[in-house]
Amino acid sequence: MRSAALDLSLPVLLGTAWFSAADESAADASITAYLDAGGHVLDTARIYGDSESVIGGWLRANGEVPGLQLLTKGAHPDPADWLSRLGRDAVLADARTSIEKLGRPVDAYLLHRDDGTTPVEEVADTLRAVVDEGLTSAVGVSNWGLERTRGLRTALRARDLELAAVSDYIGLALPSAEPDWAGEASLTAPLLAWLEEEGVPNLSWSSQSSGYFVGVAGGHQFDGDENVRRRAVLEEIAALAGVRPESVLARWSATLSPVVVPVLASRSPERLARTIADTRDASLDPVVANLVAALDPNGTLGRPLIEPGAVW
């Protein structure tokens, strides 16, 4: 039994880390805007506070939506001590809790962090158990590197499973400071090349660089001279074309690679709908090309504009 695939016919996931029980109406509006735009996959995680419970409440109130898929992540280390939670008991406990909160099995279950030491064969056995228990039909990883991901995929295939997805950061802003959360990983050029060769999607969390290019700066993990330069270039290129910088950014993130799928989030349903529309707007492609050419005139950074060593 191979893992089922996520429905990425609209290649944008809805990020829900900000969902809160204190303002369920905002979460409801975000889900509605996403579905109205043709979206299919809600991205959540056990570590995301109220998110799973809010989504579960929405599902109970609205009923099953045909084609709607849920992706959650588990086995995140406890931020208090950062000890690994990749053991079978911890993974299964997280997965069971997620399904209880959401009210149904998920369509994809990702391990939220790697510890770099647990043998991939043990990890594959654990993920096999998650599938066998009926908690999910597809498995993957988030914040993992190339060698461990490649090894895990081999181990999964030996257990008649497929690696459904990877979820590492990739955005126009380069990692420039200590990450907001320990263990964050950004997509490297070699990992991207392997994913493209194998046809495995990368679900790019914080694909808009946590709002860095739309005024969220200061004390920011993307603060840095290179990103200041990139923001200035983006604003100049957009102004010359008479479009909004965030529109160019959205289309760039959606066309970076056939296997890169941006995860988008916004507390404003109008902004979310507009950003999703921008990801599909081919008229922005010449502006995106101008942006890439201006940022990388000699072609030395590579198509994804990932600089060597510019990763957490």
Count of helix runs:
10
The CATH superfamily name is: NADP-dependent oxidoreductase domain
Main sheet properties: 8 strands, parallel
Domains counted in the coordinates: how many? Answer: 1
End-to-end CA span: 35 Å
Structural class: alpha/beta
Task: Kindly provide the name of the CATH class.
Answer: Alpha Beta
The coarse silhouette is: globular
SSE run: EHEHEHEHEHEHEHHEHH
The poorly predicted ranges are none
What's the total count of β strands? Answer: 8
**What gyration radius follows from the Cα positions, in whole Å?**
19 Å
Mean pLDDT score: 93
What is the CATH topology assignment?
Answer: TIM Barrel
Proportion of residues in helical segments: 40-55%
% residues in beta strands? 5-15%
Compact summary:
With about 300 residues, the protein is of the alpha/beta class. The protein contains 10 helices and 8 strands. The chain has an 8-stranded parallel sheet.
What does this structure look like?
By secondary structure, the chain is of the alpha/beta class. The chain has one domain (13-295): NADP-dependent oxidoreductase domain (TIM Barrel), CATH 3.20.20.100. Helix content is 40%, strand content 11%. It contains 10 helices and 8 strands. It has helices at residues 24-36, 51-62, 88-102, 120-132, 146-158, 189-198, 225-241, 245-255, 269-279, 285-295; strands at residues 13-15, 41-43, 69-74, 108-111, 139-142, 163-167, 202-204, 260-264. It has an 8-stranded parallel β-sheet. Helix 4 (120-132) packs across helix 5, helix 7 (225-241) packs antiparallel against helix 10 and helix 8 (245-255) packs across helix 10. The chain starts with 12 loop residues before the first strand and ends in a 17-residue tail after the last helix. The mean pLDDT is 93.
